[in-house]
Amino acid sequence: MSEKLIEPKLQAELRATTRITDVETDEVRELVLYIDDPAFRFRQGQSIGIVVPGKDEFGSTNHKRRYSIVKGSESSSEDGIELTILVRRCFFIDDFNGEQYPGRASNYLCDAKVGDSISITGPYKSPFKIPSNKSANILMIGTGTGIAPFRSFIETIYKEKGGWDGQVRLFYGAKTGLDLLYMNDKNNDLVNYYQEETFQAFNALTNRALSGEEKALENSLNNNIQEAWNLIQQPDTYVYISGLDNIAPALDTVMIDAADTQESWQLLKQKMKDEGRWSKLLYS
Ligand SMILES: Cc1cc2nc3c(=O)[nH]c(=O)nc-3n(C[C@H](O)[C@H](O)[C@H](O)COP(=O)(O)OP(=O)(O)OC[C@H]3O[C@@H](n4cnc5c(N)ncnc54)[C@H](O)[C@@H]3O)c2cc1C
């Protein structure tokens, strides 16, 4: 799974690391990185690569994984620049022996201590482009750390572009209230946009300890299916999907139901893809 590294690396210093989810649920940490290079430029919503030092058990080096930049300092100063990422601590189960193994990059980052030096690459382009027409509708569908590109998206259209005329909807699934990243008592900056006339967010939580975020997303869509289905059928609606890759089948399940047949949903989805109105950022 390691890739050959040919890009330049930069050193970043870990300035802060905070767990922002409840101890009963998956660990998600907010990490603030400081890059001591005033020339480093990025936009929120882009991602950086994190390079894990050392070799894995098979001897491969340069294990690199991408993380979306959720926010940053407004502009770089002479001293350098700060940026924030959200990291979910990942584990995977080996199909063969059933044992649980830690994901390399996410565990390296979640275990890192303030002051540690971390190798980064990038920044890399966001797959999400803001439509050129302000009257286009924007439908964001995501789970967990997938909120990172949406947060910057919402901020850009309302702050930098001075508002949006089309409807902007966020359908979001999470495991617990605290896991509703950036929409909870500790981090509520998305709430700033709730008074925007065109913005509305529909959140849902998983209702059983063992069910995943994709189930919560399914609930959030099902509970508001008329809203989602009306919007998705309009010719000027752009769909953005972000988070763990099990969202895709969850979304299909809900939409096949709304469209009556699998074929009609596939046709509509294909039309959106052909017209450049369907973008996704999915990861395992
Ligand atoms: C553009 C982009 C943006 C992203 N943004 C974020 C973000 O903001 N926040 C975030 O938390 N994540 C994000 N991700 C996901 C992130 O890059 C990593 O994929 C994730 O953290 C897991 O990496 P890891 O090194 O911890 O796990 P890895 O060690 O790479 O393992 C990941 C998966 O690989 C499989 N696997 C690995 N090794 C084995 C093995 N030996 N046997 C069987 N299966 C194996 C498992 O399915 C496992 O779940 C993003 C991904 C992309 C592409």
Folded structure, characterized:
The protein is α/β, with parallel strands linked by helices and 284 residues long. The protein folds into two domains: 10-124, Elongation Factor Tu (Ef-tu), domain 3 (Beta Barrel); 137-283, Nucleotide-binding domain of ferredoxin-NADP reductase (FNR) module (Rossmann fold), CATH 3.40.50.80. 24% of the residues lie in helices and 32% in strands. It contains six helices and 13 strands. It has helices spanning 104-111, 147-160, 213-223, 225-232, 247-259, 262-274, and strands spanning 10-19, 28-35, 47-52, 63-72, 81-88, 91-93, 100-102, 117-124, 137-143, 168-174, 199-205, 237-244, 278-283. It has a six-stranded antiparallel beta barrel. Strands 11-10-9-12-13 form a five-stranded parallel β-sheet, with helices on both faces. A hairpin with a 6-residue loop joins strand 6 (91-93) and strand 7. The longest helix is centred in the middle third of the chain and has 14 residues, at 147-160. The chain is globular. The structure holds flavin-adenine dinucleotide (FAD). Flavin-adenine dinucleotide is lined by residues 1, 47, 65-68, 85-88, 90, 92, 94, 103-107, 145, 148, 281, 283-284.
SSE topology sketch:
Blueprint: E1 10-19, E2 28-35, E3 47-52, E4 63-72, E5 81-88, E6 91-93, E7 100-102, H1 104-111, E8 117-124, E9 137-143, H2 147-160, E10 168-174, E11 199-205, H3 213-223, H4 225-232, E12 237-244, H5 247-259, H6 262-274, E13 278-283
Radius of gyration: 19 Å
Write down the oligomeric state.
single chain
Structural domain count: 2
Ligand types: flavin-adenine dinucleotide
What CATH first level of the largest domain would be assigned? Alpha Beta
Structural class: alpha/beta
